[in-house]
TrEMBL record:
GO terms for biological process: nitrate assimilation. It comes from the Bacteria. Keywords: 2Fe-2S, Heme, Iron, Iron-sulfur, Metal-binding, Nitrate assimilation, Oxidoreductase. This is Nitrite reductase small subunit NirD. The gene is nirD.
Length: 125
């Protein structure tokens, strides 16, 4: 398990300088993830229909540095939205990025905004 490359840094909502238009809401799967590209970064975007909430994190799983989190299963653990990596089931909070079932380094998480039918992911660069 490895720390993620430096381009993956959590962005707090108040730090956003660029709301990147990721696509129309109907281009994203319901209750699952999709992957977008932002420069050299792959970002996984998730829609939780029951809560009508969107989340984004790096697609890169810090366990083996595989770009797979967008294909992970999503769910909740004690009210915390999470994604489970499809490879070895490491689970990450989609609000803080922390690994909820082990000692993996955290993933970077990004704010998501939905406006006029489009999904925007917040970056600080
Ligand atoms: S690559 Fe092993 S849990 Fe993600």
């Amino acid at each position: 398990m490895t720390t993620s490359p430096p381009q993956y840094q959590t962005v707090q909502p108040e730090a956003v300088t660029n709301w990147y238009k990721a696509g129309r809401t109907d281009q994203f799967p319901v209750g699952a993830g999709a992957t977008i590209k932002y420069g050299d970064r792959q970002i996984a975007v998730f829609y939780f229909p029951r809560q009508d909430k969107w989340y984004a994190c790096q697609n890169l799983c810090p366990h083996k540095l595989e770009n797979v989190l967008g294909r992970g299963l999503i769910g909740e653990q004690e009210g915390i939205p999470k994604v489970a990596c499809p490879l070895h089931k490491k689970t990450f909070s989609l609000t803080t990025g922390e690994n909820l079932n082990g000692d993996c380094p955290p993933v970077a998480v990004y704010p998501v905004d939905v406006k006029d039918g489009y999904v925007y992911v917040g970056f600080a660069d």
